[in-house]
Structures are given as C-alpha cells and as structure tokens.
Specification:
This protein is of the alpha/beta class and about 450 residues long. Helix content is about 35%, strand content about 25%. The protein contains 13 helices and 18 strands. The strands form 3 sheets. Strands 1-2-3-4-5-6-8-9 form an 8-stranded parallel beta barrel, surrounded by 6 helices. Strands 12, 14, 15, 17 and 18 form a 5-stranded antiparallel β-sheet that branches. It has a 4-stranded antiparallel β-sheet with strand order 10-11-16-13, with no helix packed on it. Strand 5, helix 10 and strand 6 form a beta-alpha-beta unit. It is globular, with a radius of gyration of 22 Å.
C-alpha cells in the first residue's frame, strides 16, 4: 500500500478507531478488568508483541483485542522483512498488524530500524559510504511509510556488548561507521517523523551495571548536545539465572531523571505459579513508581508462541487461559478481575485438559540426528494436542512425521496429523530429522497443550 493510500485509509477509518478508543475508555471507567484498561487507569499502556501469521487464529486475536492497548510487531518491521533487497520495500505483514491495531484503537510501537541482527546479506557487503546511505534510506523508507501511525520507534537496538566492558557491539554499522552511527540514526529518524517517540532499546540493562552505565552515558551525552532521543527501552527478559534486579526501579528512575521516558519493551519471565507472578508484580510496581515509565509490553500473547517456549514466560498459557501471573499483573495495576470465575484455570472442577511432551534423540550421525517427542495425555482424555520444538539457530529440519508442523523462524509448532485422540495416560509421538550444520545442541520442547 502506498504512503498516500495509507494516509487516505487512515483518515477514512479515523472514526472507527476513535469509536474503538471511546469504547475502551468507557469499559475502563466501568471496570478495569483487563490489562489494557487497568494500565490506562494508571496512565500507562499495556502491550504485547504480535506476529502477523497468528492473526487468523480466533483465540489469539480475541485475547489480543480484549487485553492489550498497544502492539509491537515481533519480526515484521525488521530489516530483512521490510527491505530484503536494496531499495525494494515489502510492508504486507507489517501493514496487517498496523491495520489490525488501528481497527481496535491500539497504539503501535515500531521495532526496529537499525539492528545488527536479521539483516539481509546485502547490507553487510556494503562499504562505509554505501552503508551510511543505505541506513538512512532504510530509516526514511520505513518511517515514511508509517509516518503519523507509530507511537514510538526502537531506532537503534542492542548496540552495546554484554559483560563488564560497556563497549559497543561489533556490527556492520559500528565497524564501518563508528560510534557516530547511533546519533546519525536518531537525527535521521527525527526528520523522518517528528511526531514519533525515538527510543534506544537493549537487554541486560535492567539493573545498574557496566552495560546500563554505558547506555546511560550515551543518553546523557545525547541530551546534553540536543541529539533527539525521547525514550529508553528495557527488554526485561527474566529467568532464575537472571532475576528482576533489586535496583530495577532505581535504574529506571535514573534514566528518567535524564529527561527521557522509559518503557518496558519485551517483558517475559520464565517460570510458573506464585514465583513467576511475584516477579511480574515487581516489574509492574517499579514502572508505576516511576512517573516517566509510560508503559509495558510483554513479548507475546501466549506461551505456545513465545520465543522462550520451554520456559512458559507469558501471562496466558497455551490454551489462552489466564495464569497466576496475569492475575498478579492485573491486581498490581489496580484492576478488578475475578480470579474465582468458573472459567479460570485452577478452579475446582474446571475440567482443564492436560498433556506432557518429552524429547529423546533416537539416532545420531556426524551431520544430523533424529529426534522424537512423546505426547502423553493427563487425567482426562484429549482430542488434540499442540507443542513447540525450538531448534538451535544453525540447525534445520529436513523432514517430520506423525505430526503437522507450522514453522516460524527456528520454532516449529506441531499439531497431530492422525494421532490427536488419546485416552487417559495414553501416549503418541512424532519424529523429525535435523541437519546439525555445525551444532550438536538439543532442541527445546515447549509445554504441551491439550483440547
């Protein structure tokens, strides 16, 4: 869709979007019983990452539309998706997400303009002069297409190294353009869409450490010299080895004190039950305690499609049922959900169906292996099951049997082919052949969900 046509379409649908927003506001005033409405009552947004290929799934879309007030395209706005060959832009999948969000009165975060990963191969082959031209053209092309439609952009993503050095990460941009590429990207972005908030986004910066100090120094320098930066995004991917740091709120506050907004941009917490709920609560309470923390985004709607599928890190399980973490977040936001509703998981007699998925390697050779996942029904008969298999980045599946796969990057979502119906305690399995491509690591199998 051309920029002009998008502008006309946006103008034509403005009344519908406004109506959706008014409906949401009225719903919030009546009872803050969803994440988005409860967050709105606190002057914040509550968003989620969205994959365009899941928007045709009724439960996915229903949960998205009911619960969230902001969306971030998970992969659809990255460089490889939007400019696979130089000067040729493809916006179809990203447009689908933006159009859906607008129809529901949701804000959209743009993710991401300049990042070392998910680059088409042609970018890395450019010399310094051509790379600078291409970087600025990409920013102008992508932001120009969505001008006036994006709440905030992750202009530069993950430009600093992990570890204790606080140094810049090696990338085509850093290696060929030097430290100035970040400033140049922000200045180009401001000119491309002056109304959009411009953010720097990174991970492992949640507490005060060498990496967050390096980002802090950059933001402080930018603010002192008038470089246009409006916000800093904290990805906040947590697990037992990387828990919510004790100085999380203080770290958010020190960035806010520089005169920028802070946003929780990619939140997920591996785990389950009360421990997971407690960590989510810490994050929400920290954001609410910092006046310039404008909102939170969880990185996915449901566990079954999470990039960390083995860790059940999100607020809805694979059957789109609210988890204890959801109730904890809603409560921390001041919401009024009813955890005793008969449809909630964990209520006595709710008839929740369950299954387990276990992985074994059944054959192995120098260049590949065969894997098998065994599905076992729980205490009730089931008529279908779903699980995910996440492969290490180098590996690829050449064949799969006794299951129906859907692939998204290195994640396979597998459903039955003929073997969905299982009696209590009964098992079935599916198998697959993997090309190692230099990696002998085992795949991660996600939670099994049953219906």
């Amino acid at each position: 869709m051309s920029m002009t046509l998008r502008r006309l379409t946006r103008a034509a649908t403005a009344g519908l979007v406004a109506a959706a927003a008014l409906t949401a506001a009225a719903h919030s005033a009546e009872a803050a019983d969803t994440l988005g409405s409860a967050a709105a009552g606190q002057g914040r947004y509550f968003g989620t990452a969205v994959a365009a290929n899941h928007l045709g799934e009724a439960d996915y879309t229903a949960t998205l539309d009911r619960e969230f007030s902001s969306v971030t395209p998970e992969n659809e706005m990255k460089w490889d998706a939007t400019e696979p060959s130089r000067g040729t832009f493809t916006f179809g999948s990203a447009d689908r997400i933006v159009d859906h969000a607008q129809s529901q009165g949701m804000d959209v975060r743009g993710h991401t303009l300049v990042w070392h990963s998910q680059l088409p191969s042609w970018v890395g082959s450019l010399g310094a002069s051509d790379l600078r031209t291409a970087m600025n053209a990409h920013i102008n092309g992508l932001m120009g297409h969505y001008k006036g439609e994006i709440h905030s952009w992750d202009v530069v993503n993950e430009a600093f190294q992990d570890g204790g050095s606080g140094a810049r990460r090696s990338s085509p941009f850093q290696d060929k353009l030097g430290n100035g590429f970040i400033e140049e990207a922000f200045r180009t972005a401001r000119a491309a869409d002056p109304a959009a908030k411009l953010c720097y986004n990174d991970y492992n910066t949640d507490g005060v450490n060498a990496k967050s100090n390096a980002v802090y120094d950059m933001v402080e320098d930018f603010k002192s010299r008038g470089v246009p930066i409006d916000c800093v995004g904290f990805q906040s991917h947590f697990n037992s080895n990387s828990p919510v740091p004790s100085d999380y709120r203080q770290n958010l506050q020190r960035f806010a004190d520089l005169g920028v907004d802070v946003q929780i941009t990619e939140l997920d917490v591996e785990g389950s039950g009360s421990a997971q709920a407690a960590d989510y609560t810490k994050v929400v309470e920290a954001c609410l305690a910092v006046s310039r923390c404008t909102g939170m985004t969880v990185w996915g709607v449901t566990d079954k499609y999470s990039w960390r599928s083995g860790g059940t890190p999100l607020l809805f399980d694979g059957n789109y049922q609210e988890k204890p973490a959801h109730d904890a977040v809603l409560s921390a936001l001041g919401g009024s959900g009813d955890p005793g509703d008969p449809g909630d998981p964990g209520d006595p007699g709710d008839g929740t169906l369950s299954c387990t998925a276990t992985y074994t390697r059944t054959a192995d050779w120098s260049s590949g292996y065969n894997g098998q996942v065994t599905i076992t029904a729980g205490d009730e008969p089931i008529s279908s099951w779903t699980t995910t298999v996440t492969l290490p980045a180098q590996q690829s599946v050449s064949s799969l049997w006794n299951g129906t796969p859907t692939r998204s990057g290195n994640v396979m979502t597998v459903r039955p082919s003929w073997n969905g119906t299982l009696a209590v305690g009964a098992s079935t399995s599916f198998g697959f052949t993997v090309a190692k491509n230099g990696s002998d690591a085992a795949p991660a199998v996600g939670t099994c969900t049953a219906s």
